[in-house]
């Protein structure tokens, strides 16, 4: 029976066409989905007709993604408005917030363009839909690597990001996005399974299993490198000054470590599913049909990061309240002049820079990025 189903799909006349000419063949998606789901075209059609409405899970994810967009937009506004946050560390945090915002937007688009609407897409549109989500994920991973690198440099050297070195920070952020776009764009460039059905992923039917394995391996190696960097930073902090464990620099280390831990916790199930997808078919691994649950859980990571900043940073909490205050006053028609007044209360940033102004220990001198 399975051989008959595969034969029916393989009869689709795509083998004589070039790969790129099929990017606009709408019928191709039907055939590839039927093959990887181990269904006939008729069975696939019946299944899609039963999924015309948004499921409860999809509605929950849409609400979550809307929250993600608003939360991370608040982080970006806070970083832009407050000059206290115009430092390397906060720019990297802003970059992470932007990637999370993109992830929320991409996932909402994915929800509304999935299900039966998937088969209204041409392959090139499908690649853009999925590629945007991969770009956002890659940007998050590379942002975490940039943050870890900045922390390591800040701990081991003094004033690396001076006024003449700002371009280095922006080059690092730019490299993060260029690499992410390249990594997420590899399938549309040509690394996909069109004309090679047995190599198609079950979770992402136009993606090659080798590409998915490659991406997960790259992300895993980067996350392992980040963990190693943080272990080295922790050892340096512990072995430096006796007061280091109570310093703002140590508090920042704890914050970014929590961010990394939450990322791994949220994305580990999704990475596991993708690894399983690269080595197992749906006939033997039916859990692959539930992949959207694991990706929905992974999306939770983008909503938790702003909450971590809020709980861990007094400065960020105050700035968030000021931004919300301004929005509330504008909505009520009252003047928002008071919200434009710079933050005058003593903060961890000011406290850090004054308290350790004459310290010579590298850890204590890097106080321009404390959280």
TrEMBL record:
> Which residue ranges does the record assign to the G-protein coupled receptors family 1 profile domain?
71-309
Name the membrane topology term.
Multi-pass membrane protein
Where located? Cell membrane
Which family is it part of?
Belongs to the G-protein coupled receptor 1 family.
State one molecular function term (GO): sphingosine-1-phosphate receptor activity
Q: Which organism is it from?
A: Perca flavescens
Judging by the UniProt lineage, the source's domain of life is Eukaryota
Q: What is this protein called?
A: G-protein coupled receptors family 1 profile domain-containing protein
**Disulphide-bonded residues:** 193-200, 280-285
Q: Which InterPro entries does the UniProt entry name for this protein? A: GPCR_Rhodpsn (IPR000276), GPCR_Rhodpsn_7TM (IPR017452), S1P_rcpt (IPR004061)
User: What is the phylogenetic placement of the source species in the record?
Assistant: Eukaryota, Metazoa, Chordata, Craniata, Vertebrata
Pfam families for this protein: 7tm_1 (PF00001)
- What residue ranges are annotated as transmembrane? 57-79, 91-114, 126-148, 169-191, 211-237, 249-273, 293-311
> Which keywords describe this protein according to UniProt?
Cell membrane, Disulfide bond, G-protein coupled receptor, Glycoprotein, Membrane, Receptor, Transducer, Transmembrane, Transmembrane helix
Enumerate the PANTHER family for this protein: G-PROTEIN COUPLED RECEPTOR (PTHR22750)
A single GO cellular-component term from the record reads: plasma membrane
Give the primary localization class: membrane
């Amino acid at each position: 029976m399975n051989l008959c189903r595969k034969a029916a799909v393989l009869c689709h006349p795509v083998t004589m066409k070039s790969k790129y000419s099929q990017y606009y063949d709408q019928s191709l998606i039907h055939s590839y989905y039927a093959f990887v789901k181990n269904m006939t075209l008729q069975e696939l059609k019946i299944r899609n007709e039963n999924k015309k409405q948004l499921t409860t899970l999809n509605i929950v994810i849409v609400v979550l993604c809307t929250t993600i967009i608003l939360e991370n937009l608040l982080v970006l506004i806070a970083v832009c408005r407050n000059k206290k946050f115009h430092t390397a560390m906060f720019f990297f945090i802003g970059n992470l917030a932007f990637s999370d915002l993109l992830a929320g937007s991409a996932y909402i688009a994915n929800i509304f363009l999935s299900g039966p609407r998937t088969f209204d897409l041409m392959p090139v549109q499908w690649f853009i839909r999925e590629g945007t989500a991969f770009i956002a994920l890659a940007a998050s991973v590379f942002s975490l690597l940039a943050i870890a690198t900045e922390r390591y440099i800040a701990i081991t050297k003094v004033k690396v990001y001076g006024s003449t070195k700002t371009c280095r920070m922006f080059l690092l952020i730019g490299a993060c996005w260029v690499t992410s776009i390249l990594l997420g764009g590899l399938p549309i460039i040509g690394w996909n399974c069109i004309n090679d059905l047995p190599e198609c992923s079950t979770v992402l039917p136009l993606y090659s299993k080798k590409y998915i394995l490659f991406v997960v391996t790259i992300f895993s190696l980067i996350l392992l490198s980040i963990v190693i960097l943080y272990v080295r930073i922790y050892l340096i902090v512990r072995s430096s000054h006796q007061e280091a464990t109570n310093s703002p620099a140590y508090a920042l280390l704890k914050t970014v470590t929590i961010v990394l831990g939450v990322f791994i916790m949220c994305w580990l199930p999704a990475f596991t599913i993708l690894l399983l997808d690269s080595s197992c078919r749906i006939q033997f691994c039916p859990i692959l049909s539930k992949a959207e649950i694991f990706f929905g859980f992974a999306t939770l990571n983008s909503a938790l990061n702003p909450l971590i900043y809020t709980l861990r940073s007094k400065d960020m909490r105050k700035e968030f309240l000021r931004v919300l205050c301004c929005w509330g006053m504008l909505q009520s028609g009252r003047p928002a002049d008071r919200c434009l007044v710079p933050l005058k209360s003593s903060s961890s940033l000011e406290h850090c820079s004054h308290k350790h102004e004459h310290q010579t220990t590298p850890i204590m001198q890097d106080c321009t990025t404390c959280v």
